[in-house]
Specification:
globular, 4-stranded mixed sheet, 2-methylcitrate dehydratase PrpD, about 450 residues, alpha+beta, homodimer, 60s Ribosomal Protein L30, Chain: A
Chain lengths: ~450, ~450
């Protein structure tokens, strides 16, 4: 009974819960000079990329199943499901939009931690804003703040926490969503500490779920739990004011590494949303340089019928993870650098449609990917790719990609993000409506409320 | 990127998720000879004790705060909150009844793991049964099965998992609730495996929260999450079929100890609900023998005004944990063996009312507890107490309690459980209605549905 418990407990952690709560509650918003225009623009990009992913998967079977379960609760019609006509209560909307935004594995990535930060935070905020009438400015401010909280906690725990088995997007996302919703609700520092505290008892997500619907469930459940934590705190529900950092608090319980300075250093000066990145291609990031290189061949005028063979040189990890030569369907194609190269040369891009079963089995695509000869060259970084097309007329066209499009060094442009959004949304909302949504996203910081945007999201 | 991750991963675990799913889906119910009449009676006792605790705390400020937050979702009136007139959707009812059932720390205890098993499981089941019209027999069967799942998983991980910081009631409770609801919904083994898998991504609760409302939030949130996991699985939502036991599944992620045989051994033969216990007194278990001993003095005719002093001999741990001589209020009194002795002698029991601020500060109670002289005697087990009353007339009355009432060796009788229920419920539902509820609880296994009972629970 009087057993000594925690093997290595840190009893001298700084008051992380209180520090973050004060930051969330009191840091000036963008209008008061809280951060730069560049940070604020990145927040708009993050929101838009998140929304496109959610719309794109709106009718995925995971969304249908989740909505059918939620329908058993006979939810009030409070909040919009991006890309669907149904409305549900705001907590369930946070859940389902969080699920759809991560279903295609096409959402944003905070590369230092592999957190997909928008899913939990933006899903909670859009639902809360729609129901409460909060402004677009309040949403963007809360997005910056919430993502800062989840990514800083992730920085502190990564990589041990991730290595242990946690899907870090869900486990830190509950805190990010709680922080963002507390900010949007205007909670004071003490109430915000309670919101973070309640959220701290609900880390969500195991990596074993990768490949199942429960993977995208993680950011959805984190969004829901974070939103409810903030609502509970707003009504006087209490939690430990040391819930994050105490020896038996969240962080020490779920991670053996906790570098507290990752949370406190430059808080309010450096914003983690600045380091967010967006995937141009709907597959694992190791294939991206190869797709990019082949898309560049196409941009230089190379066409599939000209090609005799494609020599691809990549780091060994690329073939180890994505060396599938003859993918049978779309899912397998996401692990085939051969298919990725063919899609890049054929289409110039590789969104979800280019990973459909139909495209993967098109005879011209099959023929093209069989012309790809991949060899390992560990002098090439895993973030790079070296491609040479040998043409029937004897010409050789060479492209070397050092940093693929979508990397921090070579980010997607706003125009590319718009194109990605169209690729996801046109078949759901139509191209004209999609263009309206995109324009609304760029102007969201000036919107009096979110109801104009959410109306556009219902087909 | 190609970092070696889990330090000590067990790649040879038995297929725990599938084994439990098959057990949940196919083990015969009581009517088909699935377990003994003794086990089934214990399930009725567990349900009744859980319900009394929930009714008793129905109007606690934690319940008010949780209901106010849930009300923001404009929930459908599907399910009853025990002891309140409001109805909410079944998932929110599971949450709030789970909170109230644990608010007084007066619910059941599976002593091997310190799990409070009924909170997550019964809270989910009553809400689901009320909404779906399931029978009382289905509820009791699912309670036996669900508690078996959570306690067996707890047995496998305890104590390392608890020592690490997890509130094991919430972390295992999600699985128990999911199993129970899957059983009640009639899911097959495959769907049940998915329900357990979805639940496995949602372990809830850190011990740092003890002393705050988030402690009772844990069984409530586990009830809600388990219920939703079963609903999701029933609609085709998928999870890993190795979500519990895989190297990056739930159990290896949240516990360094996993004794799989605790789950597989005598599965379907030994039922963990048989080892459930119920607290007679509304305070920490180390004070129970002392209260019991003083209540026995009272039963032998000793009255407070006769007493000159009370000599109490206890194990050192009792004074270490509950040595507060002058408690200022009810909360402090729960850590005062002196107050406990006074309550035992004065009232013969010590329920929530006997730990009210008012009772704690009554002059006659203060005077009586000051007559208690406690000394340490480590030859006395921590589960025992030795009490001698010295009376003004020179008499000495001695009582030795080896195993306090409420222990596994000396369980509360059915009559004592009824008395406890009245103590919790009479002020909420009235004594006559409470008696009806108690009778309904004893007969729940024969009830066609739960709607008669839930109607009685709304004042």
């Amino acid at each position: 009974m009087a057993r000594n418990t925690q093997v290595v407990a840190d009893h001298n952690a700084p008051p992380i819960t209180q520090i973050l709560a004060k930051f969330v509650a009191t840091h000036p918003g963008f209008a008061e000079g809280g951060w730069s225009a560049e940070v604020d623009h990145e927040a708009h990009r993050t929101f838009m990329n998140w929304l496109g992913c959610a719309v794109g998967a709106a009718h995925h079977e995971a969304a249908d199943a989740a909505l059918a379960a939620v329908a058993m609760l006979q939810p009030a019609e409070q909040a919009t499901l991006a890309g669907r006509s149904e409305k549900v209560d705001m907590a369930s909307a946070a859940l389902i939009n969080g699920i759809t935004s991560h279903t295609f594995d096409f959402d944003d990535t905070h590369l230092k931690t592999i957190i997909h930060p928008a899913g939990p935070v933006a899903s909670a905020l859009l639902a809360l804003a729609e129901q409460t009438g909060a402004s677009g400015r309040a949403l963007i401010d809360a997005l910056v703040i919430g993502i800062d909280v989840s990514c800083r906690v992730g920085n502190a725990m990564y990589p041990d926490h991730y290595d242990r088995g946690w899907h870090i997007t869900g486990s830190t996302g509950t805190l990010g969503a709680a922080a963002a919703c507390a900010r949007m609700l205007g909670l004071d520092a003490q109430q915000t500490a309670m919101a973070l505290g309640i959220a701290a008892s609900q880390p969500i997500g195991m990596r074993e779920q990768f490949g199942t619907m429960t993977k995208p469930f993680h950011p959805g459940a984190a969004a829901r739990a974070g939103l409810m934590s903030a609502l509970l705190a707003s009504k006087g529900f209490t939690a430990s004011s040391k819930a994050l950092e105490a020896p038996r608090g969240m962080m020490q319980t779920i991670s053996t590494k906790n570098d507290w300075t990752e949370i406190t250093s430059e808080l309010g000066e450096r914003f983690e949303i600045s380091f967010n990145s967006y995937k141009p291609f709907a597959c694992g990031i190791v294939i991206h340089p190869s797709i990019d290189a082949c898309a560049q061949l196409r941009a230089q005028g190379v066409t599939p019928d000209q090609v005799q063979s494609i020599e691809l040189k990549v780091h060994s990890l690329v073939l180890e993870l994505t060396g599938k030569k003859e993918p049978a369907d779309g899912l397998q194609a996401k692990f085939s650098v051969y298919h990725g190269c063919a899609a890049g040369l054929f289409f110039g891009h590789a969104a979800e449609d280019e990973f459909s079963d139909e495209v993967v089995n098109r005879p011209d695509m099959v023929a093209l990917r069989r012309k790809v000869v991949a060899t390992v060259d560990d002098s090439i970084d895993e973030a790079s790719a070296d491609v040479t097309a040998l043409l029937h007329d004897g010409r050789r066209v060479h492209v070397f990609v050092e940093h693929a499009i979508g990397s921090l060094q070579n980010p997607m442009t706003d125009a590319l993000l718009e194109g990605k959004f169209h690729g996801l949304s046109d078949s759901v909302l139509g191209a004209a409506r999609t263009a309206e949504v995109i324009q609304a996203c760029w102007k969201i910081g000036q919107a009096a409320d979110l109801r104009g945007l959410t109306a556009l999201l219902r087909p």
